[in-house]
Amino acid sequence: MDALIRDIYKMPAGQEFEGFFIIENVEIKKHRTGEPYLRLIVSDRTGTLPILWWKPPKDADLTIFKKGDVVFIKAYVELFQGNVQPKIRLMRHAEKNEFKREKFIRSSRFNIDEQFTKLLEIIETIQNPYLKKLLELIFYDDEIASAFIKTPGGKFIHHATIGGLLEHTLGVVEICEVVAKRYKSIDRDLLITAAILHDLGKIDEYSIDMAIDRTDEGILLGHIFTGSELISKKIDEIEGFPKKLKIKLLHCILSHHGEYEYGSPKKPKTLEAVALHYADALDSKVKGYEEHIERELGEGKGWTKRHFAYEVPIFFDGEISYEE
Amino acid sequence: MDALIRDIYKMPAGQEFEGFFIIENVEIKKHRTGEPYLRLIVSDRTGTLPILWWKPPKDADLTIFKKGDVVFIKAYVELFQGNVQPKIRLMRHAEKNEFKREKFIRSSRFNIDEQFTKLLEIIETIQNPYLKKLLELIFYDDEIASAFIKTPGGKFIHHATIGGLLEHTLGVVEICEVVAKRYKSIDRDLLITAAILHDLGKIDEYSIDMAIDRTDEGILLGHIFTGSELISKKIDEIEGFPKKLKIKLLHCILSHHGEYEYGSPKKPKTLEAVALHYADALDSKVKGYEEHIERELGEGKGWTKRHFAYEVPIFFDGEISYEE
Amino acid sequence: MDALIRDIYKMPAGQEFEGFFIIENVEIKKHRTGEPYLRLIVSDRTGTLPILWWKPPKDADLTIFKKGDVVFIKAYVELFQGNVQPKIRLMRHAEKNEFKREKFIRSSRFNIDEQFTKLLEIIETIQNPYLKKLLELIFYDDEIASAFIKTPGGKFIHHATIGGLLEHTLGVVEICEVVAKRYKSIDRDLLITAAILHDLGKIDEYSIDMAIDRTDEGILLGHIFTGSELISKKIDEIEGFPKKLKIKLLHCILSHHGEYEYGSPKKPKTLEAVALHYADALDSKVKGYEEHIERELGEGKGWTKRHFAYEVPIFFDGEISYEE
Amino acid sequence: MDALIRDIYKMPAGQEFEGFFIIENVEIKKHRTGEPYLRLIVSDRTGTLPILWWKPPKDADLTIFKKGDVVFIKAYVELFQGNVQPKIRLMRHAEKNEFKREKFIRSSRFNIDEQFTKLLEIIETIQNPYLKKLLELIFYDDEIASAFIKTPGGKFIHHATIGGLLEHTLGVVEICEVVAKRYKSIDRDLLITAAILHDLGKIDEYSIDMAIDRTDEGILLGHIFTGSELISKKIDEIEGFPKKLKIKLLHCILSHHGEYEYGSPKKPKTLEAVALHYADALDSKVKGYEEHIERELGEGKGWTKRHFAYEVPIFFDGEISYEE
Amino acid sequence: MDALIRDIYKMPAGQEFEGFFIIENVEIKKHRTGEPYLRLIVSDRTGTLPILWWKPPKDADLTIFKKGDVVFIKAYVELFQGNVQPKIRLMRHAEKNEFKREKFIRSSRFNIDEQFTKLLEIIETIQNPYLKKLLELIFYDDEIASAFIKTPGGKFIHHATIGGLLEHTLGVVEICEVVAKRYKSIDRDLLITAAILHDLGKIDEYSIDMAIDRTDEGILLGHIFTGSELISKKIDEIEGFPKKLKIKLLHCILSHHGEYEYGSPKKPKTLEAVALHYADALDSKVKGYEEHIERELGEGKGWTKRHFAYEVPIFFDGEISYEE
Amino acid sequence: MDALIRDIYKMPAGQEFEGFFIIENVEIKKHRTGEPYLRLIVSDRTGTLPILWWKPPKDADLTIFKKGDVVFIKAYVELFQGNVQPKIRLMRHAEKNEFKREKFIRSSRFNIDEQFTKLLEIIETIQNPYLKKLLELIFYDDEIASAFIKTPGGKFIHHATIGGLLEHTLGVVEICEVVAKRYKSIDRDLLITAAILHDLGKIDEYSIDMAIDRTDEGILLGHIFTGSELISKKIDEIEGFPKKLKIKLLHCILSHHGEYEYGSPKKPKTLEAVALHYADALDSKVKGYEEHIERELGEGKGWTKRHFAYEVPIFFDGEISYEE
């Protein structure tokens, strides 16, 4: 029985539990006697927990436990000034196959394989041979494809799940299809290609070992640049790819955050770029609101706390639902 | 033959023409001899033209010509310092039925009756009896309906045509349907109702006699307030309309500009409100870009001048097309 | 003797006290033995206090104590790690008439009845019959009047007291009188009417049961809209009320926050509107500074902490005084 | 008869006129024959006028006419392409006493001597001996006083008249008196002193020879600094002036623009400073709106053009009036 | 004798002149007789000039003259309403070698060859073998080098001359050397390399045929992206180039505009990036001020007009000097 | 042995230590028995520490220990809930000469005497006799000079050390020398004088008794004003100092923060002012980044926490070094 941290907080003092956790912080402390003990903060996807290894075995090498390690713990609940602070009986590193990563990071609510098949089907509908070739070069590249289907859409704000990037990409494509159908002046193939590729750079922006983290590359360069650069490189492998088409496609990627203050080095200057920007905003904001509601209210109703990025509290009295 | 101003500019000196025009400005001037003459600026939907009535009949009452009047003019082109400045041979007020208002103001590219029928069909799909009742109260009210189908979406920035409000409303509804289908947590009936009603207040914001103009009410109160107030009044006529539903609907209207700096007294604080805001932004920005391209490039390609509101020049090398 | 929380913090360990408090937070916890105990945070207008009911009677139904309840408590002080954390001997719900609401929420420093009389006298000075009629319709409506005299001016920033709205309204009126006297181009009756009504919508924005709270309506719609709507409704009951006057009055209400970023859907576009906006700013900022000084320094002198809304610390070395 | 430019524009071709004007721009041009002629733009307080000296006397030294000179002109109206462009018959420099400066710059609507007397009376009411002494040192200094009563409140935005600074100062003092009376925690003497001195630095910021202009000192240093420095210097002449009082007074001056973006090096951090800032804003904004209405609408009604600084058009349908 | 437009404006009516000019605008107009004539606007680096070809030869093909062509013109000055508007006697296309491009676009005040030699010497001082290799790959590539030495630093704001990029690059390097010497924690080789490469992308951003223009690529993608991409490509040609070094270098390029609002997709997050940003700002702002002074005041002194980007007028009473 | 707080945190429970500390906060508490004890927070330059005097001598006057006092303490470590909270055995006030101020506040990494000598040498290079005289008046004034060499550059953001102002001043001068050498249009003497004096006002802005603190004068008036005023006063002591030079110098001081939002009452409007602003920004930002790295990473590498003012985390993998 692999206990969730959310549940441990509800246990009475004295109750025993066990499970797999990630070490978020670890310090070796000393008792007055000089004997060492461990003070840890551990986490799973439901929260974080302070916990003490008060009496480790005399001969234990406590220095082997590092931030980021997954450990197996047996412990019992203690209340310290009315707060939960369990004490460990036994702790060891976990084996790779003992636990499920889902304990630490949520997955997209959609089936990833079905979603990816849907993406490939959309690629089939592209008429422009250069754009189609480009998409095939990218998504039939196993390395890129396998990274793409796992990458989250973000760390906190929206689509912060395994597969979140794929889910978000399809959401944006759906909206762009409606717009391209209504506005015939739009180059539909260009818009859909841009929608599919707009966040491609995120495959280098996030690492998802046990938790979603931003890579140094992500923080220092950003997905707008790394995505544009990757697309540019792939285009250069396609003979005869029209230069103007390349510029128009890259412009969509470079401007899709819409405003400079969101890290867009360019503002949208074509019909396709402006459509992509607002379609992206629409899908990500709605999802961001929904994830905040889920995180804050669970299955309850009423007001959330102020959203740290959108700067409003959110009111919800419906049902969170993913049923088709 | 009712000449368009756009064409008069291309005529050689001496060419005769005639047609209907709106007086934008008129001054009675005097020749050195003391004889009066008229200096006018006239317009139609293709532009404005300076023109002189150099030798009006001795007994003519020149004071009867006022700003805003529609007049019939016969004249010939003169070049003054290489600039076109025609001289009038004859000028009189136009009769109501002599000319078509389309000469002065463009209409939506869509068929207004078909569009309105489509709107009524969408109302039929609303399941929530209170919201459906509300929409019926509004759109089966002949006065409101006949204003609604003529009102423009704006004066300059987007959907600046007769019927533009109806066209924009359906554009926003289309996008909202996709979003509501993807995000099941959204109350679809509430979102679609809000989308239909979001710009209702514009029926009081614009006057469209011969040109689109903002009313005093529009400038001093604004469509966000007048629309919300009208909806609130109509809701109060419906027995048993749930108070919370009223508040949630009005919140969508009051917050649909999204940010305070765009005159929204509230920022979106529900799923439906945030979806409406970005769907509105998406439809209006794409249309605004398209109208700017048409206005600036006609059937040409390349770069427009900087858009006065979006603050970028726009690049376009496709075809403006409204074909289904 | 009804102890104030501010004083409990100064008591030595072991001292007994009793009094009425509001429950801000309550959790049922379990001792290691499985026996339940209560962990509460309670408040009065002088602060908040953590407190434990360590050993409630065996047969007590602990689930009856809810957030927001007013309770009578007998307890004694304990120091836990040098911090005050009293233990409860006895706790029960309070009867309606046992306690004074003033323990929980402060009242305006002015006498409410005198202030309201003053307001009615000002209404008498209005010459314009339509505006006078409007004010009478509103302030001789018992329901509105009795709400108006109790409503606070705000939750935190300024006039956060019972009767604060009335106090602030008179402050703004006083300033407007000086301005109207100096600037003869101003329509004095319009300005004074707008000043009296500018925050009327706050009667729906705040609930003041035991503490000042914002209603759902307040957060989702806001007092600018609800006030304007109420005034509009009342105007429509008055025969012959000039439409232009209605628009000018509502414009004052809609624009009185002055800038979009403060939730004004309109910026001031008339002399009266601009005068009202700055008179409102003047009275509320001075009061906001004063309340911050009182809250932070008590009767002391020197620097306050940074004001959370005005973003500066405030320096004060005078005497807070309300003497006439 | 000294013609106003506003009236010359309404004259028929051929009409003779004469009057005094300031040269705004002057160019010596050559006819094809090589003969020189002058092309000028001249102004008075009602507008600007292009005018030609087509045939100056053969032996005239045309280089003596410079920008900023006041000249006497005799001329007759010519219409050039329907535009007014008079031709000069005779032009010479004006003598100092031939013309009135009021032709070129408007004066405050209030009587300057009465206003200054009122200011001195207010100074009498100050109880604090140091502040009173300071005000006396400043306003009984003839050089400062005679500059103070002439200086405008600004070049364009508000109180742009001779005596405008004095008028504005009294307006701010009046408002501050109301506030100090209502809020007893305010140090009334400090507030009134700060109100009297808040724009003192403007005596160095503007030059008013024939028109209001900003000095180099005004543009490079600004009245906030020069005023504060002058006050500081005067304080240092007063024995025993308390240092804390000096700092509090200078803080009011340094922060009276309220926000950094208006060139305030400090934000208000005392009750007196915040009251002064908003009282200043109130008086100057109302006056700025009123002056814009006068300039734009004259005695008419309706909408002005967008105000260049306040960024809104203004609606006015009352009467501009200065009657007591 | 190749006349400068600046001088033509000072010629008397009737004077003959000849020279080479770029066509900025051209329209074929018709006389009342139906005969065609040309209306042109032509330019050189000193300004623009309206000019007419009133009587072209009967058999001339007027359609061969296009915007952007360089033409040879013989003409004489005519004054039209006191304005200069010459008439052409003869016009033909210029041969490539007949004229000097310096007539149309200014060059850097520094000797380009000497400057480039200096740059190569600086490259010699780089100790880090990877960075040195990278710089050699780029600057010993003839195509890049020959573009680099001609490219301007900008179109309007600063270093808007042939060779301006090279001049600005050295200016930034000089400042960075001082900073790297003072702050030993800085990686000097990395900073100098980043300084040398920071605006490399401008070689694709501007076209300088006869005038400086921004390319479509420049407007749609921008030099920050194209430069970073080119550097990244060159790095990938160097075996063993450390990945972290690549990321740190690219981060400097991507963040060198410092703030999002200036199109930086990243804000500086390393010592080298922050140093580069402010060194770039320092060199470009000083140069931008200086160029504005030269353009506005020529050899005069006093105040310039408000700078369109820096939003201030500039005061200068020194001597513009480039002497060593 | 004078223990550093940084080291006390690493001691095991029970270890004895002694040393000098500043009292940051002190409260007299009571045991249940009614006996008093002290709860303190003490600090040195390496951090802050909670500490208890659990059993002070019966007859001790505990009220003599005040915030800001330097005390000598003997104590031993106790762990309270795993946290360090030592208990005092003995505490008394420190004598002036017992401890070194360096324990509480860091000094500039440069030798202050050498730096000041360097400053005097730079003053020698000024050719303009008025500017040289001004600098001599200021820096040969012992009171100013001795304040100047001790004053920090800031409280937190950059150069927060004794002597930091001197260090920063020289850094800015160095950069300005490079710029003045490159841009000959700059008045080098004016720029260097402005650079030397730009932060002079900080001698009144900070108090550095045992820690750096801002004075009331600093918070209410600011160094931009007090510095400008002091310079202005000194200039007035120099006979014949040109007025225009005074204005240009003061303009540099008043505008050196560059933008209104950083408290600059003026934006730079001369070449010297714009150069000074960016040189100041460059030196202070690089130093600010470096100090943040040191504070956060010590001798480690990687990412710091987000900088509270620059709003980014900083990446560093080099070596902090001050070696020449």
Automatic annotation (TrEMBL), chains A, B, C, D, E, F:
Alphabetical UniProt keywords: Hydrolase
Listed NCBIfam families: HDIG
InterPro entries: HD/PDEase_dom, HD_domain, HDIG_dom, YhaM_exoribonuc/phosphodiest
Gene3D superfamilies: Hypothetical protein af1432 (1.10.3210.10)
Location of the HD domain: 165-285
CDD domains per record: HDc
UniProt-recorded Gene Ontology molecular function terms: hydrolase activity
Pfam families associated with the record: HD
PANTHER family named among the record's database cross-references: 3'-5' EXORIBONUCLEASE YHAM
GO biological process, one term: rRNA 3'-end processing
Protein name: Phosphohydrolase
Keyword Ribosomal protein recorded: no
Source organism (scientific name): Desulfurobacterium indicum
Presence of the UniProt keyword Transit peptide in the record: no
